[in-house]
């Protein structure tokens, strides 16, 4: 795990982010609105939370006794699970869901109910991914299992020639890997590297917290269903897997189409750890938007189709990104800096598919 400190050293185009931040500040002040979430976000949290938890409750109460109905319920839970992650936990994790810090802290812990570990997520996502996007050895999002190659700086194996075919299946395994082993492996890796992921809690405490979290999660989402749902246990296990596969697949295609694209770049630091760019322009060069005109799609995926805006303003709720995207585009054009956007989600998927082929060959 990389420990070298990365520094963005270029002073070019620094006026871009200064002007953009000033324009953004004026937008919120002139319209007298908060940078945090609004009724739209609260409503979404209720909808996605219901899609995730109500089918489980109905199954536990015996209201869905058939195998077909049970598997359908788990599928719906997978959709709700992804919605909770993208539309609730994600904003709260960045402190953007509510102006009340305790609300953000509480809702960020919804990660526990998704089978993940909030401490790992905050370090991997907030610190490493947002701080060092697409930098090999620092951004863990482009360092998946070896059978996938998301960076041109990773070793190339013969199997990668076919990753544009099989990668989609592995996307579906994303969240099940959290539940089974990744959280333990990740936390252990941080400890060995001497990374401070929580300045107030020791690694002993964090490992105990992680173990307890997994016990509670498995008890609620696997043991109780096996005991109470009136069908054979293996159907419940299959349903649990389907839930995670649906969620993982949705998350995989949403996030990877924002960074692993033919347009995005993969800069490397020099021997001293310097990146010859400033942070804001680096985000533009390594991130892509898509489907900017589809309001429902954007609503469903928590505004993550506006990844450029999210990377520039992670502490602003995603409900504002559609309006901010116009300012970002205009300012980028003014300073002649990159602003990547794909017309639709399917065009973005095609671009990502092509990039998987490029990285595989």
Total DSSP E strands: 4
Q: What separation lies between the terminal Cα atoms?
A: 26 Å
Regions with little confidence, pLDDT below 50 for 5+ residues: none
Based on CA inertia axes, which overall geometry fits? globular
Q: Characterize the biggest β-sheet.
A: 2 strands, parallel
Instruction: Provide the domain count.
Output: 1
Spell out the blueprint of helices and strands:
Blueprint: E1 7-8, H1 14-30, H2 39-60, H3 67-93, H4 101-108, H5 118-131, H6 163-171, H7 174-193, H8 203-228, H9 233-259, E2 274-275, H10 279-286, E3 288-290, H11 295-300, H12 307-312, H13 321-334, E4 340-342, H14 345-360
Parallel strand pairs: 1-2, 3-4
Helix pairs in contact: 1-13, 2-3, 3-4, 3-9, 6-9, 7-8, 8-9, 9-14
What can you tell me about this protein's structure?
- This protein has one domain.
- Helix 6 (163-171) crosses helix 9 and helix 8 (203-228) packs across helix 9 (233-259).
- The chain contains 14 helices and four strands.
- It has a two-stranded parallel sheet with strand order 1-2. Strands 3-4 form a two-stranded parallel ribbon.
- The protein starts with 6 loop residues before the first strand and ends with a helix.
- It is an all-alpha fold.
- The model has no long low-confidence stretch (mean pLDDT 95).
- The radius of gyration is 21 Å and the shape is globular.
Task: Write a concise synopsis of the structure shown.
By secondary structure, this protein is mainly α. 61% of the residues lie in helices and 3% in strands. The chain has one domain (7-360).
């Amino acid at each position: 795990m990389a420990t070298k400190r990365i520094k963005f050293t270029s002073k070019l185009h620094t006026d871009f982010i200064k002007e953009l931040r000033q324009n953004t500040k004026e937008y919120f002040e002139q319209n007298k609105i908060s940078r945090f979430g609004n009724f739209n976000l609260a409503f979404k949290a209720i909808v996605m939370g219901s899609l995730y938890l109500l089918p489980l409750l109905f199954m536990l109460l015996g209201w869905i006794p058939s195998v077909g109905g049970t598997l359908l319920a788990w599928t719906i839970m997978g959709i709700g699970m992804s919605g909770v992650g993208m539309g609730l936990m994600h904003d709260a994790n960045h402190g953007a869901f509510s102006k009340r810090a305790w609300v953000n802290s509480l809702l960020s812990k919804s990660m526990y109910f998704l089978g993940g570990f909030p401490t790992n997520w905050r370090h991997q996502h907030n610190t490493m991914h947002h701080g060092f996007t697409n930098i090999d050895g620092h951004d863990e999002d482009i360092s998946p299992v070896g059978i996938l190659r998301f960076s041109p700086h990773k070793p190339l194996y013969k199997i990668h020639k076919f990753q544009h075919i099989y990668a989609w299946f592995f996307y579906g395994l994303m969240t099940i890997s959290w539940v089974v082993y990744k959280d333990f492996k990740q936390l252990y890796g941080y400890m060995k590297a001497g990374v401070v992921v929580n300045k107030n809690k020791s690694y002993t405490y964090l490992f105990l917290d992680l173990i307890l979290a997994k016990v509670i999660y498995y008890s609620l989402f696997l043991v109780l269903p096996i005991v109470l749902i009136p069908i054979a246990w293996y159907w419940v296990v299959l349903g649990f897997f389907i839930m995670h596969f649906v969620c993982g697949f949705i998350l995989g295609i949403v996030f990877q189409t924002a960074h692993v694209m033919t347009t995005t770049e993969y800069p490397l630091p020099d021997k001293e750890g310097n990146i010859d760019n400033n942070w804001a322009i680096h985000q533009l060069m390594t991130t892509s938007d898509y489907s900017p005109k589809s309001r429902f799609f954007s609503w469903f995926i928590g505004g993550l189709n506006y990844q450029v805006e999210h990377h520039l303003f992670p502490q602003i709720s995603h409900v504002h990104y559609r309006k901010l995207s116009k300012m970002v585009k205009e300012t980028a054009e003014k300073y002649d800096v990159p602003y990547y956007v794909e017309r639709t989600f399917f065009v973005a998927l095609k671009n990502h598919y092509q990039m998987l082929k490029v990285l595989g060959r």
